[in-house]
Amino acid sequence: MKKHTKKMPKKRRMSAVIRSYRDTIFRMIFKNKRELLVLYNAVNGTHYTNLDDLQITTLENAIYMNMKNDVSCMLDMRMNLYEHQSTVNPNMPLRDLFYIARLSDSFEVSGEVNLELTAVQLNINPGYNEELKKGCPTLYQYVCYVEKVRKNKETMPIDVAVKKAVDDCIKEDILKEFLLKNKSEMIQVSIFEYDEEKHKKFLREEGFEDGLERGRAEAIIELLEEMGDVSDALREAILSEKDISVLKKWNKLVAKADSIEDFLKVINYNN
Fold first, then answer.
1. What is the distance, to the nearest Å, from the Cα of residue 239 to the centroid of all Cα atoms in its chain?
2. pTM of this prediction?
3. What is the DSSP letter of 154?
4. What are phi and psi of 50, to 5 degrees?
5. 18 close to 226: Cβ distance less than 8 angstroms
6. In b/e form, how buried is each residue of 112-132, taking b as 16+ CB within 10 angstroms?
7. 116-164 pLDDT tens trace
8. Which of 6, 46, 153, 200 could form a disulfide with 161 if both were Cys (CB 3.0 to 4.6 A apart)?
9. Percent of the chain beyond pLDDT 90?
């Protein structure tokens, strides 16, 4: 989870986005403004109560694999971006910076702008940061649901594990209202999330993640995906680039590009 401070002046119309990706369970729950405000207070140790004070600034195209797992808001001129990751991700600050850079395109900025960015990773597994979860009961219940799925899948197929976790949570009054309203979608998304995580684990075990270089390459692809469909050839070209100086240059260029075609021209890409 991350906290940001940036002056955000007059807002202008945001560009069209691609909506072909799924929300994660975390995002399904916390894109609700009331739930997001409670999460904000729990993380920041604040006590805001007026929903009108909170402005949701989530980008529809900040993507994790094929899932959207981020929620973003601004309150008291502070930008906050929250993501739930199953493992520690050292590239969080870099991902965060590109998120803010892309979001700032939606605002008219004049004069000097100062940005202070802090990335904080919080362990919300059972037994960790219990005070945080006490301050946000829905986050606690979300963790309970995730833990039930984890334990169930040790002894049963993932589809059965998810369905049993959902049924048990409803009986135990855990996310009950949310589950009853979204039961079918919840089951489908949970199964899909598990498959995505299994795929990521496979990539790690096979040695395809190359630290900072991989993180920069993925950040470039995420920004390109906001502009349109990224071809398999282009994706592979970016991921296979190991020169960190080249990736740094591409990072800057893609942030300034208005389209994929513009980006391809400035890097002299031919395929």
1. 20
2. 0.64
3. T
4. -85, 115
5. yes
6. eeeeeeebeeeebeeeebeeb
7. 778 888 999 999 999 999 999 999 999 999 999 999 999 999 889 999 9
8. 153
9. 31
